[in-house]
Specification:
Elements lengths: L1 H30 L6 E3 L2 E4 L4 H23 L5 H13 L12 H7 L6 E4 L3 E6 L10 H5 L1 E4 L16 H15 L4 E5 L12 H16 L1
Parallel strand pairs: 1-3, 2-4, 3-6
Antiparallel strand pairs: 4-5
Helix pairs in contact: 6-7
Length: 218
């Protein structure tokens, strides 16, 4: 059932990409509006200076952010996603990759169907490379094969996964610039969750100061 779930997710992406194209052509050409995709992403920081961890962090970004952004901004799935899924699909006994390939016509339809990039960002995780998962039931996590974790000294929000790491915002924005060029970016979500119930929430003020400063530094 896992391959079917993956195919369902990819099919949804295909539907979204083509819906964006036709909406852009038939609606916004008339009303002169703007269109984009909103992508939520964590920043993934290499757990060490090793080449393996550097590649693991980049792979995690491409399997999370790039999976959605690359077809629209660059015209195809990220190359590392194409290669990893094709390699594991063959070892799993599939006659073709579990990741459907875009046709040349589809690439032309999808690429460029945006006016700006909308970004949701809250937190950061460290990433280390791991040995490739054994060949068995296909899964998204097995395709990536990384270990993601957080530094225990990072301040937290109310959720266990939420760590306050302002420099992650700066590094994410720099990576977006390097990867996608001079695309206009609008940050559509960012903030601090808590359950303190207090009005004088200096910790939230500090959070916004840190993240806004990180945006300026980028």
């Amino acid at each position: 059932w896992l391959p079917r779930v993956f195919m369902f997710v990819v099919s949804c992406l295909f539907f979204f990409f083509f819906a964006s194209y036709f909406y852009l052509i038939y609606q916004f050409s008339t009303f002169e509006g703007t269109i984009t995709i909103v992508i939520d992403t964590t920043w993934f920081e290499p757990g060490s200076d090793s080449e393996e961890d550097q590649e693991a962090a980049e792979r995690m970004l491409q399997f999370t952010f790039g999976l959605y952004a690359n077809p629209i901004f660059m015209g195809n799935w990220p190359q590392v996603v194409i290669d990893r899924i094709a390699e594991r699909s063959e070892l799993e006994g599939f006659s073709s990759s579990r990741l459907p390939a875009f046709t040349d016509e589809e690439i032309v339809y999808i690429k460029g169907t945006y006016d700006y990039l909308a970004l949701n960002h809250y937190s950061t995780l460290m990433v280390n490379a791991t040995a490739d998962a054994p060949i068995g039931d296909p899964s998204y996590d097995n395709d990536i094969s990384v270990l993601a974790w957080r530094q225990p000294e990072w301040p937290s929000g109310s959720a266990d996964w939420f760590a306050v790491v302002p420099w992650g915002m700066r590094r994410l924005l720099v990576w977006l610039k390097k990867t996608y060029g001079d695309v206009e970016i609008i940050i559509t979500e960012n903030g601090l969750s808590d359950n303190t119930g207090i009005m004088e929430d200096d910790h939230r003020v500090s959070y916004y100061q840190g993240y806004l400063s990180a945006c300026l530094d980028a």
